[in-house]
Write a structure and sequence with these properties.
heterodimer; B: mainly beta; 51% strand; globular
Protein backbone atom coordinates (compact mmCIF):
# COMPACT_ATOMS: atom_id res chain seq x y z
CA UNK A 1 0.00 0.00 0.00
CA UNK A 2 1.36 3.41 -0.97
CA UNK A 3 1.07 6.17 1.54
CA UNK A 4 2.56 8.38 4.20
CA UNK A 5 3.28 7.20 7.71
CA UNK A 6 3.89 9.35 10.73
CA UNK A 7 5.05 8.08 14.05
CA UNK A 8 4.24 8.12 16.82
CA UNK A 9 0.54 9.03 16.85
CA UNK A 10 0.87 10.66 20.27
CA UNK A 11 4.03 12.10 21.79
CA UNK A 12 4.60 13.58 25.21
CA UNK A 13 7.67 15.58 26.19
CA UNK A 14 8.87 17.76 29.00
CA UNK A 15 9.58 21.40 28.35
CA UNK A 16 13.18 22.02 27.33
CA UNK A 17 13.59 18.74 25.46
CA UNK A 18 14.03 18.41 21.73
CA UNK A 19 11.77 15.90 20.02
CA UNK A 20 11.84 14.42 16.51
CA UNK A 21 8.70 13.50 14.57
CA UNK A 22 9.00 10.88 11.86
CA UNK A 23 7.52 11.10 8.37
CA UNK A 24 8.03 8.42 5.71
CA UNK A 25 6.44 8.09 2.27
CA UNK A 26 6.57 5.32 -0.31
CA UNK A 27 4.79 7.26 -3.05
CA UNK A 28 8.06 8.17 -4.76
CA UNK A 29 7.16 11.83 -4.35
CA UNK A 30 9.84 14.48 -4.70
CA UNK A 31 8.24 17.12 -2.48
CA UNK A 32 7.48 16.82 1.23
CA UNK A 33 5.95 19.25 3.70
CA UNK A 34 5.40 19.78 7.42
CA UNK A 35 2.36 21.63 8.73
CA UNK A 36 1.24 22.63 12.17
CA UNK A 37 -2.46 22.65 13.10
CA UNK A 38 -3.82 24.25 16.26
CA UNK A 39 -7.41 23.76 17.52
CA UNK A 40 -9.91 25.54 15.34
CA UNK A 41 -7.24 26.78 12.97
CA UNK A 42 -6.14 25.91 9.51
CA UNK A 43 -2.78 24.56 8.50
CA UNK A 44 0.41 26.56 8.75
CA UNK A 45 3.50 25.55 6.78
CA UNK A 46 6.63 24.90 8.84
CA UNK A 47 9.16 23.58 6.31
CA UNK A 48 9.10 22.04 2.88
CA UNK A 49 11.51 20.16 0.65
CA UNK A 50 11.24 19.86 -3.11
CA UNK A 51 14.22 17.59 -3.54
CA UNK A 52 16.64 15.50 -1.50
CA UNK A 53 19.24 17.49 0.46
CA UNK A 54 17.32 20.73 0.01
CA UNK A 55 14.61 22.36 2.10
CA UNK A 56 13.11 25.79 2.68
CA UNK A 57 11.47 27.56 5.60
CA UNK A 58 7.75 27.98 5.57
CA UNK A 59 5.69 30.56 7.40
CA UNK A 60 6.47 29.44 10.96
CA UNK A 61 9.92 27.80 10.87
CA UNK A 62 11.29 29.34 14.08
CA UNK A 63 12.03 26.69 16.69
CA UNK A 64 11.92 23.82 14.18
CA UNK A 65 14.51 22.02 12.09
CA UNK A 66 14.34 19.38 9.34
CA UNK A 67 16.56 17.18 7.22
CA UNK A 68 16.03 15.47 3.86
CA UNK A 69 18.77 12.89 3.44
CA UNK A 70 16.52 10.39 1.67
CA UNK A 71 13.69 10.88 -0.77
CA UNK A 72 11.26 8.93 1.35
CA UNK A 73 12.02 10.52 4.72
CA UNK A 74 11.52 14.06 6.09
CA UNK A 75 11.87 14.14 9.89
CA UNK A 76 10.93 17.25 11.87
CA UNK A 77 12.69 18.25 15.09
CA UNK A 78 10.82 20.46 17.50
CA UNK A 79 13.50 22.21 19.49
CA UNK A 80 13.36 23.73 22.96
CA UNK A 81 13.40 27.12 21.25
CA UNK A 82 9.85 26.60 20.01
CA UNK A 83 7.79 28.63 22.46
CA UNK A 84 4.48 26.85 22.07
CA UNK A 85 5.15 23.35 20.69
CA UNK A 86 1.94 21.60 21.75
CA UNK A 87 0.00 21.03 18.51
CA UNK A 88 -1.05 18.53 15.87
CA UNK A 89 1.66 18.04 13.24
CA UNK A 90 0.89 16.89 9.72
CA UNK A 91 3.30 15.67 7.09
CA UNK A 92 2.42 15.71 3.39
CA UNK A 93 4.00 14.85 0.08
CA UNK A 94 3.35 15.62 -3.57
CA UNK A 95 4.74 14.57 -6.93
CA UNK A 96 5.83 18.15 -7.51
CA UNK A 97 4.66 21.70 -7.59
CA UNK A 98 1.17 22.17 -8.93
CA UNK A 99 0.21 18.70 -7.84
CA UNK A 100 -2.10 17.64 -5.04
CA UNK A 101 -0.65 16.94 -1.62
CA UNK A 102 -1.25 13.70 0.24
CA UNK A 103 -1.26 13.74 4.02
CA UNK A 104 -0.15 11.41 6.75
CA UNK A 105 -2.31 10.64 9.80
CA UNK A 106 -0.58 13.23 11.98
CA UNK A 107 1.28 13.30 15.31
CA UNK A 108 -0.19 15.00 18.34
CA UNK A 109 2.61 16.48 20.42
CA UNK A 110 2.02 17.55 24.00
CA UNK A 111 4.74 19.40 25.87
CA UNK A 112 4.33 20.04 29.60
CA UNK B 1 -1.49 38.80 -0.81
CA UNK B 2 -2.77 35.44 -1.93
CA UNK B 3 -5.48 34.10 0.32
CA UNK B 4 -8.25 31.55 0.63
CA UNK B 5 -11.34 32.31 2.65
CA UNK B 6 -14.09 30.06 3.90
CA UNK B 7 -16.82 32.36 5.20
CA UNK B 8 -18.59 29.72 7.28
CA UNK B 9 -16.80 28.53 10.41
CA UNK B 10 -19.47 26.00 11.32
CA UNK B 11 -22.44 24.62 9.40
CA UNK B 12 -25.13 22.25 10.66
CA UNK B 13 -27.35 20.31 8.29
CA UNK B 14 -29.82 17.47 8.69
CA UNK B 15 -28.99 14.07 7.32
CA UNK B 16 -30.33 13.79 3.78
CA UNK B 17 -30.28 17.53 3.19
CA UNK B 18 -28.15 19.17 0.53
CA UNK B 19 -24.87 20.87 1.38
CA UNK B 20 -22.85 23.74 0.00
CA UNK B 21 -19.58 24.89 1.54
CA UNK B 22 -18.19 28.16 0.30
CA UNK B 23 -14.63 28.93 -0.72
CA UNK B 24 -13.26 32.14 -2.21
CA UNK B 25 -9.73 32.83 -3.34
CA UNK B 26 -7.73 35.95 -3.94
CA UNK B 27 -5.04 35.44 -6.56
CA UNK B 28 -3.77 37.38 -9.54
CA UNK B 29 -4.59 34.50 -11.85
CA UNK B 30 -6.64 31.35 -11.44
CA UNK B 31 -4.80 28.99 -9.12
CA UNK B 32 -5.11 25.25 -8.83
CA UNK B 33 -7.92 24.54 -6.34
CA UNK B 34 -8.52 21.68 -3.93
CA UNK B 35 -10.96 20.50 -1.29
CA UNK B 36 -9.82 18.31 1.59
CA UNK B 37 -11.73 16.66 4.43
CA UNK B 38 -10.39 15.94 7.92
CA UNK B 39 -12.02 13.72 10.52
CA UNK B 40 -11.13 14.47 14.16
CA UNK B 41 -7.56 13.52 15.00
CA UNK B 42 -6.83 12.37 11.45
CA UNK B 43 -4.90 13.60 8.46
CA UNK B 44 -6.46 15.35 5.47
CA UNK B 45 -8.01 13.42 2.61
CA UNK B 46 -8.27 14.89 -0.88
CA UNK B 47 -11.87 15.14 -2.07
CA UNK B 48 -11.33 16.76 -5.45
CA UNK B 49 -9.16 19.14 -7.42
CA UNK B 50 -9.48 21.68 -10.22
CA UNK B 51 -6.64 22.48 -12.57
CA UNK B 52 -8.42 23.64 -15.74
CA UNK B 53 -11.18 22.68 -18.15
CA UNK B 54 -14.66 21.68 -17.06
CA UNK B 55 -15.74 23.96 -14.23
CA UNK B 56 -17.80 21.27 -12.50
CA UNK B 57 -15.49 18.78 -10.84
CA UNK B 58 -16.55 15.43 -9.44
CA UNK B 59 -14.81 13.99 -6.42
CA UNK B 60 -14.98 11.09 -4.04
CA UNK B 61 -17.78 10.32 -1.56
CA UNK B 62 -20.39 11.95 -3.81
CA UNK B 63 -18.94 15.46 -3.58
CA UNK B 64 -18.64 17.93 -6.42
CA UNK B 65 -17.34 21.47 -6.71
CA UNK B 66 -17.98 24.26 -9.16
CA UNK B 67 -15.34 26.76 -10.20
CA UNK B 68 -16.67 30.24 -10.97
CA UNK B 69 -14.02 32.59 -12.27
CA UNK B 70 -16.27 35.65 -12.12
CA UNK B 71 -16.86 35.12 -8.41
CA UNK B 72 -13.38 33.76 -7.54
CA UNK B 73 -15.18 30.86 -5.92
CA UNK B 74 -14.84 27.10 -5.70
CA UNK B 75 -17.82 25.90 -3.68
CA UNK B 76 -18.20 22.31 -2.55
CA UNK B 77 -21.58 20.60 -2.84
CA UNK B 78 -23.27 17.35 -2.00
CA UNK B 79 -26.91 16.61 -2.84
CA UNK B 80 -27.63 14.43 0.21
CA UNK B 81 -25.49 14.49 3.33
CA UNK B 82 -24.77 11.37 5.36
CA UNK B 83 -23.96 11.33 9.08
CA UNK B 84 -20.44 10.14 8.21
CA UNK B 85 -19.80 13.42 6.36
CA UNK B 86 -19.47 15.25 9.69
CA UNK B 87 -15.89 16.55 9.63
CA UNK B 88 -13.76 19.62 8.95
CA UNK B 89 -13.48 20.74 5.34
CA UNK B 90 -10.57 22.73 3.97
CA UNK B 91 -10.31 24.58 0.70
CA UNK B 92 -6.80 25.12 -0.65
CA UNK B 93 -5.17 26.89 -3.58
CA UNK B 94 -1.81 26.79 -5.26
CA UNK B 95 -0.40 29.13 -7.87
CA UNK B 96 1.29 26.25 -9.68
CA UNK B 97 4.59 27.95 -10.28
CA UNK B 98 6.42 26.45 -7.38
CA UNK B 99 4.57 28.37 -4.72
CA UNK B 100 3.09 26.52 -1.84
CA UNK B 101 -0.44 25.65 -0.90
CA UNK B 102 -2.56 28.24 0.86
CA UNK B 103 -5.25 26.68 3.02
CA UNK B 104 -8.47 28.26 4.12
CA UNK B 105 -9.34 28.25 7.83
CA UNK B 106 -11.76 25.36 7.44
CA UNK B 107 -15.50 24.81 7.86
CA UNK B 108 -16.73 22.38 10.48
CA UNK B 109 -19.75 20.38 9.34
CA UNK B 110 -22.17 18.89 11.85
CA UNK B 111 -24.91 16.51 10.70
CA UNK B 112 -28.17 16.13 12.63
CA UNK B 113 -29.87 12.72 12.60
Amino acid sequence: DGGITQSPKYLFRKEGQNVTLSCEQNLNHDAMYWYRQDPGQGLRLIYYSQIVNDFQKGDIAEGYSVSREKKESFPLTVTSAQKNPTAFYLCASSAGTGREQYFGPGTRLTVT
Amino acid sequence: AQSVTQPDIHITVSEGASLELRCNYSYGATPYLFWYVQSPGQGLQLLLKYFSGDTLVQGIKGFEAEFKRSQSSFNLRKPSVHWSDAAEYFCAAQKGNGQNFVFGPGTRLSVLP
